[in-house]
Amino acid sequence: MIDKIKRVFVAVLATAGLVAFAVPALAQKYPNRVVTIVVPYPAGGPTDQLARQIADKLSRKFGQNFIVENVAGGGTIIGTNRVAHATPDGYTLLLHNLQVSANPTLYKSLPFDTEKDLEPIMFVNQDPLVLVGRPGLGPNNLNELVALMKKERLKAAIPGYGATGHLTTTLLANVAGVDIDQIPYRGAAPALADVIGGHVDIFFATPQQVLQLVATGKLKAYGVTQKGEMQEFPHATSMVEALGPKLDIHYWQALFAPGGTPPGIIKVLNETLEEVVSDPAILKIWTADGVTAFPKSERSPEAGRKLLKSEMARWGKVIKDNNIHVSQ
Fold first, then answer.
1. 293 and 193 housed in the same domain
2. Which of 102, 244, 312, 324 sits most deeply, having the most CB atoms within 10 A of its CB?
3. In this structure, what DSSP letter does residue 295 have?
4. Full-prediction pTM beyond 0.85?
5. Are residues 177 and 271 in the same domain?
6. Got the DSSP string for 75-136?
7. DSSP labels for 36-64?
8. Domain range for 232
9. Is omega for the bond preceding 120 within 30 degrees of 0, making it cis?
10. Chain segment 137-189, per-residue pLDDT in tens
11. How far apart, in whole angstroms, are the C-alpha atoms of residue 121 and residue 276?
């Protein structure tokens, strides 16, 4: 009887060992074919640029091709849906940004459940937004700009109704106690063109979009949505210090897999992406554009899940409080 119990115990331990080995073994075989990173935007924007940087580095590290596919449209829902319902095997990924956390409240219904159908691999990088104005706008600093907005109703360009720029401009109006006319555009490029041309007054942009335009005097930089000044925009005021913590906003970008992707694959992708994020060549490019790597302590998949949930709650409140909704 004792021998029989020993044999059963050994068999149980052996089975447990096989189960424990299964996830690492699965991860070791990944990837063995082309991996597609879906970007829910047209080519050329910040998210697309990051996806191509990541795809190039991951291709080199894994020895398998990582390619970028732009699936734009529907307020990023079409591309996101493509990944949310893809086979959860690690071969179809999503590179998205802050917008993915706003969409669940922005739209009455989505064809996927953001928290259940998307698995964060890593929050990769972030940057504050820069409030810029047309070159002929009178104020020379943020205080003067707010004073003008209290007297006159300025026009703000927004790269699409419900987009990050729209939500941030809405928050600015809330905290400053002013009314702003928000003019929607089909993307940042035409919006910036009209600010430079003097047709609209202000615009919230990412640093890389306006760094050279501010340096050459084609735009004025008034504020940055972070604590402390930003050396790339020395004349821009911290909007957090001037107007309050609600304007502490960072435009983050993150890599996702379909929900249900094996933990071993998520782990190997996160660990390899950690090497990419620590690459001095990548960091040099980001620094030149005013972009920083996401804090190391918040780059794990577990941290990503918590951050996604908190960002959904934050932007959901802004959208509800201001009655912002988009029809599909």
1. no
2. 102
3. P
4. yes
5. no
6. GGHHHHHHHHTS-SSSSEEEEEETHHHHHHHHBS--SS-HHHHEEEEEEEEEEE-EEEE-TT
7. EEEESS-TTSHHHHHHHHHHHHHHHHHTS
8. 130-247
9. no
10. 999 999 999 999 999 999 999 988 889 999 999 999 999 999 999 999 988 88
11. 13
